[in-house]
Amino acid sequence: MTLPERRIVAAMLQRKISVAQIAVQLGRHRSTIHREIRRNFWHDDEVPMATGYWHMNAQHLAASRRRRQAKLLQDNDLRDGVIAGLKAGWSPQQIAGRLRLEGGRPRVCHETIYRYVYSPEGQAQELGRHLPERRRKRKARYARKPRSLVFPERCMIRNRPQAVKDRQVFGHWEADLMIFRKEHGPANVATVVERMSRYTVIFRNNDRRSRPLMNRLIDLLSPLPRDARQSLTFDRGLEFVSWRELEKGLGAQAWFCDPQAPWQKPTVENTNRRVRRWLPRDTILLTIDPKEFGGLAQRMNATPRKCLGYRTPAEVFREELARASGLQ
Asked: Has residue 229 been placed in a domain?
């Protein structure tokens, strides 16, 4: 909020005007006004008459919170200690708590660390890769907006044809990454599932960079006929931001789930739950021979499925693949 807006809030509160009416006057949501008052309300135990919401105090309090991030830019030792903690697998909350426990040195709260991680300086160092949960950009939940530049409207899952949604057409895939314990390294497992046949491919990635993953998908699907690789559906994870490479190299359409809606790709989510029987989260992936992932996929593809009339995914995939090959 701006200083003029805070001046209006203070004046209307003194006149006992409700928060709802203040929100209408400013063209803001009432929750915004509630948060503003709660965060910047001045408490003075020594002079009770001074307690209240005052626009200048509110402006100073808000500016003070914004300046806290500068502490990590100005204090090299503190910044190096925070970065070392992140690379060791500590969460920002653990780092901030440890600084408070040790005492005797400058400290920051975990929100300040998060803001630094998502600042231009933190993004240049790729610090977000060390967080327990990563996002491309951190915003309050009420302020989150679609990543229109990264995942444009034309690729939204709501635009996917109904025939694809109903599994009436062969050659449409879903892909996802299975994540494991952070202390075992950045390795992960990619699962790729054809929606109609439930045919599954599983392979290991040694990191979560997007471009190498897309190259693997291109190498995996490019030998198939064009009708057998028409589209792939992803969630909005950072590992899929290079999807344009996939469209360019494979000629397949990329579709993306809505924010925080991975359930919109149910085929691969269900597959991941099945795979967890053999690859729980504490699995050390680098100790597993890559051939074993192929063997696990073969095992799943050879299992009869009720949704396929108790045929196996491999059988249905071969039938549909032969049909797609005959169309070319």
From this structure: yes
Distances (CA, A) of 10 to 18, 24, 42: 12, 15, 12
Tell me if 303 is assigned to some domain: yes
Contact between 136 and 238 under an 8 Å Cβ cutoff? The reply is yes
Number of domains the chain is built from? 3
Burial readout 134-160 (b: 16 or more C-beta within 10 A, e: otherwise): beeeeeeeeeeeeeeebbeeebebeeb
Nearest to 317 by CA among 295, 270, 325, 215: 325
Helix, strand, coil distribution of the chain in percent, nearest 5: 55, 10, 35
pLDDT in tens, the chain (328 residues): 888 888 999 999 888 999 999 998 888 898 999 999 888 888 776 767 778 888 888 888 887 766 655 778 778 888 899 999 998 888 888 998 998 888 877 888 888 888 888 888 888 888 888 887 656 556 554 444 444 457 888 889 999 999 999 999 999 999 999 999 888 888 899 999 999 999 999 999 888 888 888 999 999 999 999 899 999 999 988 888 888 888 888 889 999 998 888 899 999 999 999 999 999 999 998 889 989 999 999 999 999 999 999 999 999 999 999 988 775 4
